[in-house]
Automatic annotation (TrEMBL):
<feature type="region of interest" description="Disordered">
    <location>
        <begin position="1"/>
        <end position="40"/>
    </location>
</feature>
<dbReference type="InterPro" id="IPR019835">
    <property type="entry name" value="SWIB_domain"/>
</dbReference>
<dbReference type="InterPro" id="IPR036885">
    <property type="entry name" value="SWIB_MDM2_dom_sf"/>
</dbReference>
<feature type="compositionally biased region" description="Gly residues">
    <location>
        <begin position="1"/>
        <end position="13"/>
    </location>
</feature>
<feature type="compositionally biased region" description="Basic residues">
    <location>
        <begin position="17"/>
        <end position="34"/>
    </location>
</feature>
<dbReference type="Pfam" id="PF02201">
    <property type="entry name" value="SWIB"/>
</dbReference>
<feature type="domain" description="DM2">
    <location>
        <begin position="40"/>
        <end position="116"/>
    </location>
</feature>
<protein>
    <recommendedName>
        <fullName>DM2 domain-containing protein</fullName>
    </recommendedName>
</protein>
<dbReference type="InterPro" id="IPR003121">
    <property type="entry name" value="SWIB_MDM2_domain"/>
</dbReference>
Amino acid sequence: REGGGGGGGGGSSEGKRKGKEAKPAKKPAAKKAKGGAGGGFQKEVALSDELADVLKAKALPRTQVVKGLWTYIKENELQNPANRMQILPDAKLKRVFGASPFTGFAMMKLLKPHLT
């Protein structure tokens, strides 16, 4: 072997791409027009009186319900210091979630009866 090449084709890698030009960037996909007022997580749901008392609202989208609850939990320092995934409800949250501690993962399941 001459040229001491370790790759196929012998010669340098320069010039191999000469004939190719850069492709223009793809245009972003057009956004679909929304039909109606939205749905799913963005749809406003009515809150029970107990939950409305905590969140200071009568209706909110589910995403804002959870966000508002986490804000309330953190402002009132209701997370268990030893296990921060566990919530230790105060008097207001006990009316919504019951007296026993619960995890953040169980929050939506426990909220179901309070959202209509």
